[in-house]
Amino acid sequence: MASRQKTRQIHDIGQLLIVGFDGTRITPKLSSLLVRLQPAGVILFARNIKTAEQTWQLLRDCQKCVSTPLFTCVDLEGGSVDRFRDALGPTPSAAEVFATGDRKLFRKHGQLIGENCRALGFNVDFAPVLDLAFDASQSVMTSRVVSKNPRETIAYAREFLAGLRAAGVLGCGKHFPGLGEGKLDSHHDLPVIEKPLRQLWTEDLLPYRTLRTQMPLVMISHAAYPRVTHDRTPASLSKVWITDILRKRIGYRNLIVSDDLEMGGVLSAAPIGTAAIEFIRAGGDLCLVCHREDYIAKAYDELVKTSESDPKFAGRVTESSQRVLAFKKKSAKILRKTGPPSAATVEKLSRKLWEFGEQVRVEALVRAENEREKSRRARA
User: Which residues lie across from 224 on neighbouring strands?
Assistant: First the structure.
């Protein structure tokens, strides 16, 4: 009986991991890792994606190693965060689409990205970005953010999420609780944002509060908010942020995923194994470990070890793994396998993407000219 419980606990821990890897095809080493971990999902980056059919085959081969349906994930926002550029062509950024002022295009942005994801075999897109476009983060976030006004950010994100949903792809709001006032890039350093909760609540947190029922996943940032937590613990390791504010005060009920636990912003606070443990302990569900196999193994082994020695932590593991599995069951239609993309399908998707890019460019120019004309008339 104890042996069966231990086996189940180890299987549960796999459902707390989404993992990345190098290479464009399955290898014996990767296959062995996936069979051992039985992760909740995999994430691909540009390094893994060369052609549409090769990507679909890689994801299909990953699924063959795992007994439960995989979250097949990608970061695809458009602009500077565009993993399909080589396979399908460039996608406009969120800022470029927002500049048109056309909500139909906001939704079309999400739907085209979703259709492209589905064609290549992905069912999760870690987008849209809900960070606000404050001056402090402008050099870091660039065209990934759309407005310093939270209501304008909500307007874009709501339509983008609806577009993804129409295409059969799960979206993810990020980076909770908000990187808009962050001057440092959390990929390398720990941003420290000196902003009180009262101000965060009405600004940075408003998109999460408003869209809480429309986001299948929320991603937690590696930034510190000392005026909220009274220390420099990253939000990704903070029970105050994940459980007390996101779960309880905001009332978010779906899945909570960490930003990549290999990023400098979190590793400056804790080594990879400790970071994975503290994220789950704080109330998170899915640890994202995107690159190094040794880090993936370390996170997994530390989660197993701690769950075996700490009954309270084992309870947290069970809670989150059951939430993940229940979510997968509810999303079975979205997680189902898709057929390989044909050459004709790829050509059609590439053409639609190019046409959309041209439409966005022209409409943004027209809107800008109309605004200039309006300003000239006001001064006259």
Answer: 192, 234
Residue 3's pLDDT band (cuts 50, 70, 90): very low
Q: Which residues are catalytic?
A: 187, 259
Confidence band, pLDDT 50/70/90 cuts, at residue 189 = confident
> Tell me: the pLDDT tens digits for 319-339?
999 999 999 999 999 999 889
Residue 145 is given by DSSP the state -
Is the sign of the CA dihedral 173, 73, 325, 237 positive or negative? negative
CB 73 within 8 A of CB 41: yes
Q: Summarize pLDDT for 353-370 with one digit per residue, the tens.
A: 999 999 999 998 988 888
> What is the Rg, in whole angstroms, of the alpha carbon atoms belonging to the chain?
21
Which DSSP string corresponds to 251-287? Answer: ---SEEEESPTTSHHHHTTS-HHHHHHHHHHTT--BE
Measured distance CA(106)–CA(108) in Å, rounded: 6
Query: Parallel, antiparallel, or unpaired: how do β-strands 81-82 and 76-78 relate?
Result: antiparallel
Strand partners of residue 257: 219, 286
Interacting residues of 369 by C-beta distance below 8 A, sequence separation 6+: none
What's the pLDDT score for residue 74?
Answer: 98
Burial 58-91, CB ≥16 within 10 A → b, else e: bbbebbebbebbbbbbbbbbbbebbbbeebbbeb
Query: Which residues have a Cβ under 8 Å from the Cβ of 130 and sit 6 or more positions away?
Result: 153, 157, 173, 174, 175, 176, 178, 207, 208, 211
The CA distance from 88 to 231, in Å, is 45
User: CA-to-CA distance for 305 and 241, rounded, in angstroms?
Assistant: 25
Ramachandran bin of 167, using left for φ above 0, alpha for ψ from -120 to 50, beta for the remaining angles? alpha
The two three-digit tokens of residue 78, written as one number = 């458009």
Q: Which residues touch 357 (CB under 8 Å, ≥6 apart)?
A: 90, 91, 92
- Give residue 197's identity as a one-letter amino acid code: L
**181 neighbors 221 (Cβ within 8 angstroms):** no
Distance CA 256, CA 175 (A): 11
DSSP 304-369: HHHHHH-HHHHHHHHHHHHHHHHHHHHTHHHHS--PPPPHHHHHHHHHHHHHHHHHHHHHHHHHHH
Q: What is the pLDDT of residues 255-301, one digit of tens each?
A: 999 999 998 878 888 899 999 999 999 999 999 999 999 999 999 99
